[in-house]
Amino acid sequence: MHTVFLASLRTHIRRYVAAAIAVTVAVAFVVVVGVLTSGAHSGLMDGLGAPYRNADHVVSPTGWPSSELDPKAAIAFTERHGENASATGRATLPARANGRKLSELTTVGPIATSEKWRWQKLSSGRFPARAGEAVVDVYFATAENVAVGDRVRIGEGVAATDVEVVGLVESPSPPAQASMYVTWPQLLRWRDQVHLNAVAVRGEVGRLPEGAKAQSPEGFAAERLTYVQNRVNSLAVMLLLFAGVAIFVSVLVIANTFSILFAQRLRDFALLRCIGATRRQVVRSVRREAAVVGVLASLAGALVGIGLGYGLTALIGALAPGVPMGAAELPVLWLLGGFAVGLVVTMVASWLPTRRVVRVSPLAALRPDTAVDVHTATGRVRPAFAAILLVTGSALLGVAMVQDSTALMVAGGGSVFAGVLLFGPVLVPRLVWITGALLGPAGRLATKHAVRNPRRTATTTASLLVGVTLTTAVLTGMTTWRSALDEQIGRDHPIDVALTSPKEPVTTDLLNRVRHTPGVERAIPVDGAVARVSGLDEPILVVTVPAAAQVARDGGAFARVEPGKIGIDSEAFGKNLSLRPGDRVTVRVGDRRARLQVAVGTGWGPAGVVAPETLATLTDAPEPHAVWIRATSGADPARLGGDLDKLADPVGATIENGLRTWESLDRQLGIYTWSALGLTGIAVVIALIGIANTLGLSVLERAREHAMLRALGLTRGQLRRMLAAEAVLLSVVATLLGTVIGVVFAWVGHETFVKRALREATLQVPWPSLGVVVLIAALAGLLAAVLPARRAARVTPAAGLSLD
Amino acid sequence: MTTTTRQATQETVAASARNLTKTYGKGDARVHALRGIDLDLPRGRFIAIMGPSGSGKSTLMHCLAGLDQASGGTVTVAGTDLGSLDDDALTIFRREHIGFVFQSFNLLPMLTAEENIVLPLELGGRRIDDAVRERARMLADTLGVADRLGHRPAELSGGQQQRVAIARALITQPDLLFADEPTGNLDSTTSAEVLDHLRRSVRELGQTVVMVTHERDAATYADHVVTVQDGRIV
Prior knowledge:
The complex is a heterodimer.
Chain A: H1 2-12, H2 17-45, E1 57-61, H3 71-81, E2 85-92, E3 95-97, E4 100-101, E5 107-110, E6 121-125, E7 133-137, H4 138-144, E8 151-154, E9 161-170, E10 180-182, H5 184-187, E11 194-201, E12 212-215, H6 217-264, H7 266-274, H8 279-319, H9 332-358, H10 381-403, H11 406-438, H12 444-451, H13 454-492, E13 497-500, H14 508-515, E14 520-533, E15 540-544, E16 565-569, H15 570-573, E17 584-589, E18 592-601, E19 607-609, H16 612-618, E20 623-631, H17 637-648, E21 654-657, H18 658-701, H19 703-712, H20 716-757, H21 767-794, H22 797-801
Parallel strand pairs in A: 5-10, 7-9, 15-19, 16-18
Antiparallel strand pairs in A: 1-11, 1-12, 2-5, 2-11, 3-4, 3-8, 6-9, 7-10, 8-9, 13-20, 13-21, 14-15, 14-17, 14-20, 16-19, 17-18
Helix pairs in contact in A: 1-8, 2-6, 2-8, 2-9, 2-18, 6-9, 6-13, 6-18, 8-9, 10-11, 10-20, 11-12, 11-13, 11-20, 12-20, 13-18, 13-20, 18-20, 18-21, 20-21
Chain B: H1 2-5, E1 13-24, E2 31-42, E3 46-50, H2 57-64, E4 72-77, E5 80-81, H3 87-97, E6 98-101, H4 113-123, H5 130-143, H6 158-170, E7 176-180, H7 188-205, E8 209-213, H8 216-219, E9 224-229, E10 232-233
Parallel strand pairs in B: 3-8, 3-9, 6-7, 7-8
Antiparallel strand pairs in B: 1-2, 1-4, 4-5, 9-10
Helix pairs in contact in B: 4-6, 5-6, 6-7
């Protein structure tokens, strides 16, 4: 039997290539996740504890991460300990270097002057010694183009201070990291903006600020590390879910490959039985073949995974140096795990097909040319079981939508999908018929080929179905989420950019210059008057904007304030706003006054919005004090903000840039969408390999039929087209079915949990993108047919007819 | 037979071969399947090509039918030199001028008998209209399988499958009908029926039939017998 095993391995190994590739991709996926996870872990492990290494105690909020230290109390606590304490934390502040505005995410943290508390590592220049000097994180410096010797203006208005960059540092500790560092007394200039997350203390802790706890440095680092690691780990779990999908698809591909190969070799097996091989011997021989394929493919997958994983680690290090990615040691457990998964998957997938081998009767060898039974029975049990799954699953989904239960949704979705897969041998061939009818007479033969073996057809399409369903659900879900968020952002940031000039009225010249700034689509002058509002220290602008709809993203709803009310931008006034919605305030312009009720919103800058009637009672001569701007779509928010800043600064006006928030949220969503698509894409690629493989094996199996067709007058081109049509039919049907199921799943998901999170979300189906998916699937199907069709067309009819 | 047909005119010759050779492989593994065959096939006759296994009779048929390219010499069918045709032209030539009945794998398993019969016309892009169906029905009737037209090959007996195959070969009214061991898988009664049908298509429809066989009994139905041995006609 050993000779037979080796010989058949030699003969058939090439036919296993596609199945092996599927396993390799799945295993590589798992290993890459492992390498990246270990890399992130080791990157986090370095550095995190550095700021606290010389402390006896670390004081941090008790309820972390949901609560933080009270900034005032923490600063007082740190001050009280003097040289024996060092705080970590940061303030997010506007900053400009060489007249250029830096990222809105610029943070400023403290750097100690004494060696023992200083944890940042100098990479060039020197450490700051006194107020007026700063060091910049080396990665931030690269990203924002800041160099030693530059002057940076931190803060706005009265708190604005110029500092000189004296050095660049590396600061790899997530809790303490900031874009730039200044001395502690310097940082206290912005004490209202500073948030401290921990204070390192030497000696006695003394009385703790309220809501704080003291831990050993090790305990503190462990707490933070666990938290960050959990996030890394949950990311790894999510990636593994995608890997799971890829593995499932590989199982389908492998199972299909084995059943086709074994069906083709049924007579060989029968012959072996005839000449005296026992069932056990035959089965053991084919299982050993599967094992060899599994071992080789898993090994290849592990190697590819290591290569890709370290390659990606290096790439992330080069492209995003801020991400803590350490050079991880080989994650042996992950490697073994990935290898085991590959081997187990291959063995499991080959189990059922090998069982069928057992049943072959020795007599099968004696029957002349039993044309491989083309009609596998679908039986009755299968559709019945499928129907039960479909009905139960739909019921579960219904209940899930009513009760907003995610668990029920997952169970119902799984059940429905399993039902569809089981129902495949009945459903898919019918769909192929319908689609094939559209192809006209040319596709008729292809259609008949495609449906001749319903179970094989169903399994082949199932793998693609899984991938496409996921892709569609992700696309639809993301589009829905995105449009809901866009709407919400529109409400929160109705005005892209607001230029507010409380002191001087806006001149026509300034308005014109704003209008001619690149990226400005429309700009309207906003009339108002400077007023004193009870409860606010500084005078503010009171404006009325009947024309807001021309520029607002929410259609101007925020500016339609009822008479007797005043709308205040809670973000523009910041934390110090003592006014609450519903408060009654007195607004005075000169000697006229009005009593108004406060309404709160966001996104139009430091001005109170009132109804035209209200403003008329306050002043007879309103002047333009602000310009509200709608940006052209695709405008670069940073550049537009910078350009407008240059216009606003000389006249003492300020800029409120809502577009930046809009854009960064938009970009994040884009990244999520593309990552999810990329990850599901792996499953789709495996599925397409599967289709090519099935087609390739079917071509081998049908060599004689093709030869006969050629003898009867089918040209090479016709043969190639027939096979291409068959592949396209399979992939398009799988894609269409997957699209439908995916949209339904997305709808259920939307009803179940998106609506709960974003009340006003309406389901958005991205038809153009889904159309592109179908088109890509059709093209990929065509591509999958290229090699098998070429091979089939090369055989001369005579050679094909004399094949056994 | 070769001496009598050598003087035959174009009108009476359906196909002819001149100095036909065919070799497979290279060097030591070189096999001479045909070693210079000269042959004329008279029109409207039933010709049997006989010979033992490995004699080259199947190769001869493949070359005469344009299924394979000869290594040397010429094959002329219905006045056309097959060597001058490229693959597509050859395919279309086969579609229009040559019919086939094989030993097995004769019919496409996923098509019904009727669909199998009209397949050559369909491949040629002809619309399957009522006239075509009527002709298929008539042929099936002649061959005694009219009641099996809606069935798939798996539901037909071996003899019925071969008769459907004959109907398919006849539907294009080919210049030449090649039958490769058409009775190889059939019992003697059914064989006799199939051979009778082939002979009737020669007598009644004026068809030219070339049958490759190694069975002496089958060859007795033929008007002429060509015997091939070691790649030569003897």
